[in-house]
Amino acid sequence: MKLRTLTLGLLSASALAFAAQAESITIATVNNGDMVRMQKLTDDFTKANPDIQLNWVTLEENVLRERVTTDIATKGGQYDVMTIGTYEVPIWAKQSWLLPLDKLGDDYDAKDIIPAIAGGLSVDGKLYAAPFYGESSFVMYRKDLIEKAGLKMPDAPTWDFIKEAADKMTDRANGVNGVCLRGKAGWGENMAFLTAMSNSFGARWFDENWKPQFDQPEWKKTLQFYVDMMKADGPEGASSNGFNENLALFQQGKCGMWIDATVAASFVSDPKNSTVADKVGYALAPDNGLGKRGNWLWAWSLAIPAGTQKADAAQKFVSWATSKHYAELVASKEGWANVPPGTRSSLYANAEYQKAAPFAKMTLDSINAADPTHPTVKPVPYVGVQFVAIPEFQGLGTTVGQLFSAALAGQSSVDDALKQAQDAATATMTEGGYIK
């Protein structure tokens, strides 16, 4: 009995010693489907790295942005890995807030990352965030409803066609909205959609001298078209709907069309979760014949704040979550169609993926169609397709998003929303020293 007690005591001591040695890293991430799936698969990582424990902080998109921005700007040190986007990376890297990802391992193959995606996550040739998934935006539509409406969806539709199709597909008696679009306020919610849309209408946030442009006719056309179409053909309460809310509506068969992130394709075509999985078609984001389509370019990426004390463990996790191995892991558990899209060229050359993902080519075409260095019809002094890559945009974009969401909800007119947006932007740019 004494021997058994001694043995148990030694085992307990070794377990305690291991627990003391195990390094715990905290990962802040967004509550999107691909990230939720990643958390379920992390046994694969912890088996290979038993000395690293993972703590998760999973947040809604707007809340995540607020928390990680506050933490990194104040050097709070709450997180060792942050899920951030293409907007933050170049700004934060230049502030020396992020560590360069130079220890991802010999077999990581960073050159396999799609150039358009890698470019947005690099500064001076160094990668500062690894893309978990990349995306543009496109039209997802119900093939059965477009056929019933007597129409044929072009591969590259115009906004006029989208409006015509929305009018004909709207069937209030059967709970079908012709179109579902983001209305929830936020620089990365409704303003991601509306800024990309405005590019195709010839609008821009600022002219070459940083003067705000919300008082110009192109923005009036953009916002009026959006509000009118959503009031006629959109869902009730649309001003509260972001990506996840519209995804649920589409999966439940309540949207004829949904123009949103290409990453949504694997979810709307998944028969386990979507009642319309076998009825979905895809097309490029709409245009107005001005040379720019209304699609964006984004990557949800994993980055490591410069203040972490656990950089090596954090890089091991980032490497695992964004590797070719992880893609194969998802394929083995969930099927190739559910592999995080838009990051690696090798995925789009994979015959199994092409066969499993009918949206693969349209996704890659959409990503390649976006040009963050020349996002608008008229010249601008900024880069970014659905955002303006300056630090002030996060606050200003959310303010404008609130004004435009209120116009959609009928709480103000389009003209009033644009005037207030112009005033807010002018004040922000004057305070920031961009204009006098």
What can be said about this structure in brief?
With 436 residues, the chain is an alpha/beta fold. It has helices at residues 2-21, 33-40, 43-48, 61-73, 88-94, 115-120, 143-148, 159-169, 190-200, 217-233, 243-251, 265-268, 311-321, 324-334, 345-348, 351-356, 360-369, 393-408, 414-431, and strands at 23-30, 52-59, 81-84, 122-123, 126-127, 130-135, 137-142, 177-180, 255-261, 280-284, 298-303.
Approximate strand percentage = 5-15%
Radius of gyration, Cα only, in angstroms?
A: 23 Å
Question: Which architecture of the largest domain per CATH?
Answer: 3-Layer(aba) Sandwich
The total of beta strands comes to 11
Instruction: Kindly identify the CATH topology of the largest domain.
Output: D-Maltodextrin-Binding Protein, domain 2
Number of domains: 2
Characterize the largest beta sheet: strand count, sense, and whether it forms a barrel: 5 strands, mixed
Query: Considering the protein shown, what is the CATH homologous superfamily of the largest domain?
Result: Periplasmic binding protein-like II
Can you tell me the residue ranges where pLDDT is under 50 for at least 5 consecutive residues? 1-20
Question: Could you explain the architecture of this structure?
Answer:
With 436 residues, this protein is of the alpha/beta class. The protein folds into 2 domains: 2-135 and 298-356, 3-Layer(aba) Sandwich (D-Maltodextrin-Binding Protein, domain 2), CATH 3.40.190; 137-296 and 372-431, D-Maltodextrin-Binding Protein, domain 2. 44% of the residues lie in helices and 13% in strands. It has helices at 2-21, 33-40, 43-48, 61-73, 88-94, 115-120, 143-148, 159-169, 190-200, 217-233, 243-251, 265-268, 311-321, 324-334, 345-348, 351-356, 360-369, 393-408, 414-431; strands at residues 23-30, 52-59, 81-84, 122-123, 126-127, 130-135, 137-142, 177-180, 255-261, 280-284, 298-303. Strands 2-1-3-11-6 form a 5-stranded mixed sheet. It has a 4-stranded mixed sheet with strand order 8-9-7-10, sandwiched between helices. Strand 4 and strand 5 (126-127) form a beta hairpin. The termini are far apart.
